[in-house]
Design brief:
This protein is of the alpha/beta class. It contains 13 helices and 19 strands. The chain has an 8-stranded parallel β-barrel with strand order 2-3-4-5-6-7-8-9, surrounded by 4 helices. Strands 10-13-16-15-14-17 form a 6-stranded antiparallel β-barrel.
């Protein structure tokens, strides 16, 4: 039989979370962000739960082609725009919208031969300081695009760096929102400025014409631990689960795993789970990282190894060989109620974020829709 580890993608949860984006910004259209292979969920699997989106936003032309192959005929937006002039040919053929964030991309458009003008979003660097035109150059860039026959409609966009929290003790979006409103004042075009955090926390100020729902549609919480998934009514779209494949009984002083990183202070029953860092589980997750065994919360012990990790079964006498281990996501029903381990809790314990765990699932892990 195959190794017992698997990842489940919950189509109904994706649809539910997309609906939450709509309810937060009822007068805006919703981009479902499916970059990084739909945050590790798989574009083809995620599409079934996200097909009610108004458009899809991503980075790679390959991913755009995969969406078109699924018979999606609606808008697709390249969030970083094109990377070389010939990319514009595929944009024309696939009818892709694309971001323009630098002068070089405008130069390429000016040289591009096309029968159908392109739909673009001009990006403002409002303070994130990654991509985009500075405020002083924004209107000139808009004027250049407006003069090109290769360009049809021009939208306006920016990206918030601190929509999930405060910034230096004050409102996290205030300085960027003011910069955008000043730079875009009087310019025609649809606006898209809200990411997941802004959609959840600041929708009345940032919804614009389009919101970009990324981590929230996968059940991740951008402002965890201030708020959790239950607060925002988000459901996990991915479950990583495996089974206990071995049980060891430790006496006081015994250790488990590489480096003897965990030493038992009392008699401890240990379960060995078929999951390790080669599966995408974070190697740096310390002792105490939460895990569910048969739907009951317990903790990891010692170092995570390539193919296995250890969990504490001392308080779970009914669990043992063959028990289900939920590394994150939806656990089994216990006592008539479902069990759940939010990915954000696991990520925080490991010193990272849920985004990284979603995207890190290894290719050797079987993935299926649930």
């Amino acid at each position: 039989m195959p190794r017992p580890i698997e990842a489940l993608i919950h189509t109904a949860a994706l649809a539910h979370n997309l609906g939450r984006a709509r309810s937060q910004a009822p007068n805006a259209r919703v981009w479902a962000v499916v970059k990084a292979n739909a945050y590790g969920h798989g574009i083809e699997r995620a599409f079934e739960g996200l097909r009610a989106a108004d458009g899809f936003a991503l980075l790679d032309l390959d991913e755009a082609q995969r969406l078109r192959a699924l018979d999606w005929r609606g808008p697709i937006l390249l969030l970083e725009g094109v990377f070389e002039p010939r990319d514009l040919e595929l944009c024309s053929r696939l009818k892709l919208w694309h971001t323009v964030h630098c002068e070089q991309q405008i130069d390429w458009l000016a040289m591009h031969k096309t029968h159908e003008p392109h739909r673009v979003f001009l990006k403002l660097n409002s303070g994130m300081n990654r991509l985009g035109f500075p405020p002083a150059a924004f209107r000139a860039a808009y004027a250049r695009l407006e003069a090109l026959p290769q360009v049809d409609e021009i939208g306006l966009m920016t990206h918030f760096s601190d929509a999930d929290a405060m910034r230096q003790g004050v409102d996290g979006i205030a300085h960027q929102l003011a910069a955008f409103e000043s730079a875009a004042d009087g310019l025609a075009g649809e606006r898209t400025i809200a990411n997941s955090a802004a959609t959840l926390r600041h929708a009345t100020r940032t919804a614009g014409d389009w919101v970009r729902a990324g981590i929230m549609v996968y059940g991740g919480v951008p402002d965890f631990p201030e708020h959790d998934a239950a607060h925002w009514d988000l459901r996990p779209a991915m479950t990583l689960r495996s089974k206990v494949i071995g049980v060891q009984q430790l006496q006081p002083g015994d250790t488990v795993g590489y480096g003897s990183a965990y030493r038992a202070e009392q008699a401890t029953r240990v379960g060995i789970v078929a999951c390790g860092y080669a599966d995408g589980y974070p190697r740096h997750a310390p002792t105490g990282t939460p895990v569910l065994v048969d739907g009951q919360r317990t903790r990891t012990l010692g170092r995570v190894s390539m193919d296995m990790l250890a969990v504490d079964l001392t308080a779970l006498p009914a669990s043992g060989f063959g028990s289900e281990a939920t590394l994150w996501g939806e656990g089994p029903v216990v006592g008539g109620n479902g069990s759940r381990l939010p990915i954000d809790e696991v990520a925080r314990s490991a010193g990272t974020i849920g985004y990284e765990l979603m995207c890190a699932i290894a290719t050797r892990v079987p993935v299926r829709s649930a």
